[in-house]
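Worked example 2:
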Amino acid sequence: MKYRTVIGLEIHAELLTKSKAFCTCSAEFGGGENTKVCPGCAGFPGTLPIFNQGAVTLAVKAGLALNCQINKYSVFDRKNYFYPDLPSAYQISQYEYPICTNGYIDIGGKRIRINRIHIEEDAGKLVHDDLEGVSLADYNRSGVPLIEIVTEPDISSAEEAREFVEQVAQRLKYAGVCDAKMEEGSLRCDVNISIMPYDATEFGTRTEIKNLNSFKSIVRAIEYEYQRQCDLLESGKKVIRQTLHFNENHGTTKPLRSKEEAHDYRYFPDADIPAVLLTDEDIEKIKATMPELPDSRIKRYTEEYSLPFADAKLLVSEKALSDFYDEAVKVYPAYKQVSNMVLVELLRRLNDTGASIDELKFTPAQLAELVKLSDEGTVSKNAAKDILLIMFEQGGHPLDIAEKNGFIIKDDIELIEKTADEILAENPKAVAEYKEGSQKVFGFLMGQMFKKIGKSASPQTVKEILNKKLSNL
């Protein structure tokens, strides 16, 4: 029997605040174990939370980036459970009244609905030492503010889940909400998955795979769990509702515990934290700080700038890259030519060196000027690549670099003709091959020409003169 997959996601994204959600400890990643902890985030009795207002602003930005309704009234609750990574034995979260609801992202023409976004504090981190047979607790992460993005069960495949999480991560980075560094745990994903026959009307029993921290792991875990559930049903067994751990090394899931229901957590409002009250003016102020998001930029690039969709998608892959491009075309609105320089030559340099666009030694305006010099024929296309390399390594203005290195095209006809005569005289074998019909040696002869002339002559002029000389032999 064939089964279809039903998937819902819970994405945990740590907010880019300087301090934790309910105390003044640093929320920065890293540092020695338990060096960013105070009595509050360590769960000492008698301590009181001090709420970080910045977390609300970032949560609203997340809601706006994900097409959510922003709720003017939201409440913090205590989610009770006993586990070593939660020193207070409860997590401050939002349950009945979350800050955002009813959002969505469109994936390939299909709408994936977002049920809610709520704010909560992160738990600590357990480090398991199998050799010593002990587990150690690091509470640096305990109390770091995060949002949980909960989807409806609208996702139908592992690839669809991956694309959804990628889009969420990209939008959160654009909005400045989360750095989405999955390798550092600032973005993590829980997958709820069940299967059902194609003609069935009721969902199957679902399992939850916890704390997936890479796009690849999301795909692998879903594909394995789908097959595991299929095998169970085909052998006449039942799927048990469980919370599962995905083993990265073996590519398998294993049970952690039985799946909790909401009543297991005994939610109740946190009496120490007042309700979050937002006005229309508050929401509009936050909305005014939002950048243009990837979808809108792709539409502008393809419809207004006539860029191919593939180029537009690559440009918006990183906000810094898209911002750089936008600044460049403000100076010189040759949209396709600037795009080619950014996506081909600039990205090659960045990829080869591992540098980021924020580390460039030249400005978008200077790159735009370089493209303009090339388009106007002041320098050749090849010379423009050399100039970009010098700008990348040393900085500087493209025109100054061109003049200093003899890249300005002057087209000294007398010099070009004299050089052509010399090259043809020095390479009689190549000339003979050309006259016999071999076209490939023409490129060799052009190369020899530029070795002597440098890049101060236009390729078109050199080609015309060389062709003329060869024709007259």
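The longest strand covers residues 3-14. The CA atoms of residues 105 and 415 lie 62 Å apart.
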